[in-house]
Design brief:
The complex is a heterotrimer. Chain A is an alpha/beta fold. Chain A folds into two domains: 255 residues, P-loop containing nucleotide triphosphate hydrolases (Rossmann fold, 3-Layer(aba) Sandwich), CATH 3.40.50.300; 71 residues, no CATH class. Chain A is 33% helix and 20% strand. In chain A, strands 6-7-8-3-9-10-11 form a seven-stranded mixed beta sheet, sandwiched between helices. Chain A is globular. The N terminus and C terminus of chain A are likely disordered. By secondary structure, chain B is mostly helical. Chain B is built from 14 helices and two strands, in the order H-H-H-H-E-E-H-H-H-H-H-H-H-H-H-H. A two-stranded antiparallel ribbon of chain B has the order 1-2. In chain B, helix 1 runs antiparallel to helix 13. The mean pLDDT of chain B is 86. Chain C folds into two domains: 237 residues, Rossmann fold (3-Layer(aba) Sandwich), CATH 3.40.50; 126 residues, no CATH class. Helices cover 29% and strands 22% of the residues of chain C. In chain C, strand 12 and strand 13 form a beta hairpin. In chain C, helix 1 packs across helix 7 and helix 5 crosses helix 6. The N terminus and C terminus of chain C are likely disordered. Classes of the chains: A alpha/beta, B mainly alpha, C alpha/beta. Chain A: This is Peptide ABC transporter ATP-binding protein. Chain A: Belongs to the ABC transporter superfamily. Chain A: One of its GO terms (molecular function) is ATP hydrolysis activity.
Chain lengths: 353, 325, 403
């Protein structure tokens, strides 16, 4: 069940057209220090009604990728290559007007911090109504009614009166609900959630994740969930993409990736996180070192300077040859499948079983 | 809101009392006797004593201060006649009532401040917004370097230069002068045009840089990015989201600037020989004219305090977090 | 109360060795409380009113906290933002002045000790902060930062301060050559190590660590947790470990307390708290933590799933009686009337204290409680259960669903 396909074979698991398809995406920023290769050769697909989790640490390129999908990067200093197709429409190089019509309408985004992502100067209701007026041509009155309906739907009590409140009158959890209402007001087909719960407490995080899942069931949107927390992914994602240093290093169905991860970086992520169950006297197994600078990414496999397994690969392939990420389930690693399987069997912690 | 205004007004009165006391006592630290000056060349000790008594200078300083302050509220009776309620005394110099002189001079200063404020606010903010909108382009770079150059252009340098170029050598405009607006609006305008522009040079440059900086800062805000993610047009994002947040620092600085301009633009008035509060302040200090100095000082301080209250009240209009807390 | 933990027994050999060269030694058996906090209260006054501003009320940030930390052990303090855990840490280190209660360090009352009285103790209680970016002076070299506490306290270790600083850098996993570098040259994880080295400079007996890893990337968090754990075991340093992350606290602390709205609602040895929690809030917290291994664990009974409604009430005007009652699915009339004491409940270990009138049975397995009206409504559409209509704000009318 965990075999990877050869890189050349087409994605046979995908009969229909994916709703969002990213092919060989590259994003480079020019900065004073040089060119940052924030995203490099990234490809993935997402169908309607599915949730894709993108996991990685800061600087892995996960947020940059989704900002690029929305076209929110700074155009003068950013070079984007590759393809981004949304429902068949090419977004790389699309005009600002085209993107404005899509943003908030076909595709919407939720950011990490609900406090800063709402303008303090306008009422919550107005901020929710605004994209609705813009994209559907509704009147102010209709839009206000719609804002109340959305606030009610995301679980804001007394939505009819809270609609006229300002964001600072909302608590953290309510603000994130309001942001979700704002993102969903035009029934977008694609919702991008960038660390939507990182700034929230655990009990509120659980509320928000449940809410997203329920709303997805109702609206059938495709969701991209960007997070650093594998636990969050386990809760809500269908598919999982692990990113490191601007590249995808592993992908597959979330349950499979979490159950039998194939990339040493994914192993590192899973083994370095403390758990609620399992042995506490065993020290955590951190990934040594720190993520590389994207100004000068390491040659070959970007993870090789931190990888504990590179001696097991014959020659210096890890330092010279960039491993390919197979289409579908698989990992971009020079280790043989047999070596990876052995590691998984040996290291699935006793605490889990 | 009312509570806020009442509390701030009470606070302002305390501040003004402190300023007045400070000025009053500082005046007596100056080692020159105004009575001796008023007496002139042929002066004996008797006439000095008489002048001193007439000026009220023979009372202890705290008594003088008390009489002065109570005179502002109730009016005062002098040997020469009574002085009605906002009584700031009589000038030592020309014996004219201080209040009347202030009222006489204020329109010049007001005209200068309003006109100048209008120029540097519109031009400065306009240029700053354009620079922020086009940030990183040659437009931005031109505006930014221009504002850097202009912000080091002092009025006493630019003023005579402009006068030489436009008035004396080429006679494009007339000598700057003050004609009351009510008398002749056209002459009022043409007479003040040069002072307005010269006064505005440094202000304009500073407002350009400030507007650009705060707008660029606001445009980085997460909620501005969120507005773009909602599909709002660049213009909506710029004006409805980013601009609103830039207002607070701009209003703060503008309020302080206007407050001090209303109290007299000393250098500009001196450069163009305009009869405003600024020249009045300089003259009265030089003449050791205590009542006039006190009057101008208190007036200027009151203006600054009033504008500070206006600024704080404006915060509430701009930012609901201030209004509702 | 006799709630000294018994689980921190892994360290005697190491800590004894370390104690030998520590200035004040171990100070007694590992079981003796190093820090004893009783009824600790911190109220932040709120001013307002017209025309004269006066005290209108208070944010009751910490409202009667008892805890005791034995030498060489780690005491974990968990709770959500605003529960008062960080304030507690700042009170213990006396960065804040307590409003009430008492703090005893090795039997000495330091509750209201003056700067001078605190001086000998300051060096023994150190703090590590959350943000490795703002807690280090960017204009000072690493050597100055780490050596600073020694300089302030006029301590000249044998071999000189510089040598000691270089040793410390090595202890925390940095290179001694980093002595002359500046903080901006380091990554977040390394900066946190510098902060740890600074805290170690005076051979502290107790370190208050306030969210020491939450600003770090996942792969780096583990490095710092392991470092702290090593220090605790090898140097016998006691920790007050404050964090919102239940899994990190579990990994690091032998005894754990859960705070809610300024009070400790439950405190127990690690295993008891995580395996057999009794307080409904602890249940809710534990069940809310998303876990990467939830899938891998499919053959095991599903963990319970509890979704609280609404938000934490304001600490300015906390609910009467039990403070959790407004969000609790078990709340009854008694809970509003009477504040539950923090005591050992039937079925708990002797060291396991719970402040609840109606404690849960000691398990965390398979059960759903959904209190969120919107979620309940949404779930009601898809599942067999029914929820209350929308609009029931933070109401105790929970929907219990049997699956």
């Amino acid at each position: 069940m965990t075999t990877s396909r050869p890189p050349t074979s087409p994605a046979e698991t995908d009969p229909g057209d994916p709703f969002l398809s990213v092919r060989d995406l590259g994003v480079r920023f020019s900065t004073e220090d040089g060119v940052v290769r924030a995203v490099d050769g990234l490809s993935f697909e997402l169908r309607r009604g599915q949730t894709l989790g993108i996991v990685g640490e800061s600087g892995s390129g996960k947020s940059v990728t989704m900002l690029t999908v929305l076209g929110l990067h700074e155009p003068r200093t950013t070079e984007v290559t590759g393809q981004i197709r949304l429902d068949g429409q090419e977004l790389v190089g699309a005009g600002e007007r085209t993107l404005q019509r899509l943003r908030g309408n076909t595709m919407a985004m939720i950011f990490q911090d609900p406090l800063t992502s709402l303008s303090p100067y306008h009422t919550v209701g107005r901020q929710i109504a605004e994209p609705y007026i813009k994209h559907t041509g509704a009147s102010r009155r209709q839009a206000r009614a719609r804002a109340i309906e959305m606030l009610d739907k995301v679980g804001i009590p007394r939505a009819g009166t809270r609609v006229d409140d300002y964001p600072h009158q909302f608590s953290g959890g309510m603000r994130q609900r309001a942001v979700i209402a704002m993102a969903l007001v035009c029934n977008p087909d694609l919702l991008i959630a960038d660390e939507p719960t990182t700034a929230l407490d655990v009990t509120v995080q659980a509320q928000i994740l449940d809410l997203l899942a329920d709303l997805q069931q109702e609206f059938g949107s495709a969701i991209v969930l960007i997070t650093h927390d594998l636990g969050v992914v386990a809760d809500v994602a269908d598919d999982l993409l692990v990113m490191y240093a601007g590249r995808a290093v592993e992908r597959g169905p979330a349950a499979e990736v979490l159950r039998s991860p194939q990339h040493p970086y994914t192993w590192g992520l899973l083994e370095s996180v403390p758990r609620l169950t399992g042995d506490v006297d065993q020290p955590l197994a951190p990934i040594p070192g720190a993520p590389p600078s994207l100004l000068d990414p390491p040659p070959g496999c970007p993870f090789h300077p931190r990888c504990a397994h590179r001696q097991r690969v014959p020659g210096d392939a890890c330092a010279t040859e960039r491993p390919e990420l197979p289409v579908g389930r698989g990992a971009a690693c020079h280790l043989s499948l047999e070596q990876r399987r052995t590691h998984v069997i040996e290291h699935r912690q006793p605490g889990l079983g | 809101m009312l509570r806020f205004l009442v509390r701030r007004t009470l606070g302002a009165i305390v501040i003004l009392l402190l300023i007045s006391a400070f000025t009053f006592f500082l005046f007596y630290a100056v080692p020159r006797d105004p009575a001796l000056l008023a007496c002139g060349k042929n002066c004996d000790s008797e006439s000095v004593a008489l002048i001193r008594h007439n000026m009220g200078l023979d009372d202890p300083i705290p008594v003088q201060y008390w009489e002065y302050m109570s005179g502002i509220v109730t009016g005062r009776d002098f040997a020469a006649g009574s002085c009605p309620a906002p009584c700031l005394g009589y000038s030592f110099d020309d014996s004219a009532p201080v209040w009347d002189t202030l009222v006489d001079r204020f329109p010049t200063t007001l005209s200068l401040a309003l006109g100048g404020g209008a120029v540097f606010l519109t031009v400065g903010l306009g240029a700053g917004l354009i620079a922020a909108w086009k940030r990183g382009t040659w437009v931005d770079k031109t505006f930014s370097s221009l504002s850097l150059v202009l912000s080091s252009m002092q009025i006493y340098f630019v003023g005579p230069l402009v006068l030489a170029l436009l008035v004396y050598n080429n006679e494009i405009l007339g000598q700057p002068s003050y004609v009351p607006f009510t008398e002749n609006p056209v002459e009022w305008f043409s007479g003040l045009l040069i002072p307005w522009c010269v006064l505005s040079v440094i202000f304009t440059a500073n407002y350009t840089r400030m507007a650009r900086a705060t707008m660029i800062e606001q445009l980085q805000e997460e909620h501005v990015r969120m507005a773009r993610a909602k599909g709002m047009s660049g213009r909506t994002v710029f004006f409805r989201y980013a601009w609103r947040g830039s207002l607070i620092p701009i209003v703060t600085i503008f309020g302080v600037d206007m407050g001090s301009l209303f109290g007299g633009a000393i250098i500009t008035e001196a450069t163009f020989a305009l009869p405003g509060l600024g020249t009045l302040a300089v003259d009265s200090v030089q003449e050791l004219d205590l009542p006039m100095t006190m009057g101008v000082m208190l007036f200027a301080a009151t203006m600054i305090v009033i504008f500070n209250i206006i600024v704080d009240a404006t915060y509430a209009l701009i930012d609901p977090r201030v209004r509702l807390s | 109360m006799g709630n000294e933990p018994t689980t921190g027994a892994a360290l005697p050999a190491d800590s004894a060795a370390a104690d030998a060269d520590a200035p004040l030694g171990g100070g007694g058996s590992p079981g003796e409380p190093l820090l004893e906090v009783r009824g600790l209260v911190k109220h932040f006054p709120i001013h307002g009113g017209f025309p004269i501003r006066r005290r209108m009320g208070a944010v009751r940030a910490v409202d009667g906290v008892d805890l005791s930390i034995a030498a060489g052990t780690s005491f974990g303090l968990v709770g959500e933002s605003g529960c008062g855990k960080s304030t507690t840490g700042r009170l213990v280190t006396r960065l804040l002045e307590p409003t009430g209660g008492s703090i005893h360090y090795r039997g000495t009352d330091i509750t209201h000790a003056s700067r001078r009285e605190l001086a000998p103790i300051r060096s023994q209680i150190q703090m590590i902060f959350q943000d490795p970016y703002s807690s280090l002076n960017p204009r000072q070299t690493v050597g100055t930062i780490v050596g600073g506490p020694m300089e302030i306290n006029g301590i000249n270790p044998p071999g000189g301060r510089e040598r000691r600083v270089r040793e410390l850098l090595e202890t925390v996993g940095l290179s001694p050559e980093h002595y002359n570098r500046f903080p901006h040259e380091f990554s977040g994880g390394q900066r946190q190590r510098i902060g740890v080295a600074r805290a170690l400079a005076l051979d502290p007996r107790l370190i208050v660590a306030d969210e020491p890893v939450s600003a770090l990337d996942v792969s780096i968090q583990a490095q710092v947790v392991n470092l702290l754990q090593r220090l605790q075991r090898e140097l016998g340093i006691a920790f007050l470990f404050i964090a919102h992350d239940l899994a990190v606290v579990r990994h690091f602390s032998q005894r754990v307390a859960v705070m809610y709205l300024g009070k400790i609602v439950e405190v127990a040895d690690r295993d008891a708290l995580y395996r057999r929690p009794r307080h409904p809030y602890t249940h809710a917290l534990l069940s809310a933590v998303p876990q990467a291994d939830a899938l891998a664990d499919a053959e095991h009974p599903r963990r319970e799933r509890i979704r609280l409604a609404g938000d934490v009430p304001s600490p300015i005007d906390p609910p009467s009686g039990c403070r959790f009652r407004t969000r609790c699915w078990k709340a009854e009339e008694l809970c509003a009337r009477q504040e539950p004491p923090l005591v050992v409940r039937d079925g708990s270990d002797p060291n396991h204290l719970t402040a609840c009138h109606f404690p849960e049975p000691p398990t965390t397995l398979g059960r759903d409680v959904i209190l969120d009206p919107a979620l309940a409504a949404a779930e009601g559409v898809t599942g067999p259960g029914t929820g209350p209509g929308p609009g029931a704000e933070a109401a105790p009318d929970a929907t219990r669903k049997a699956r």
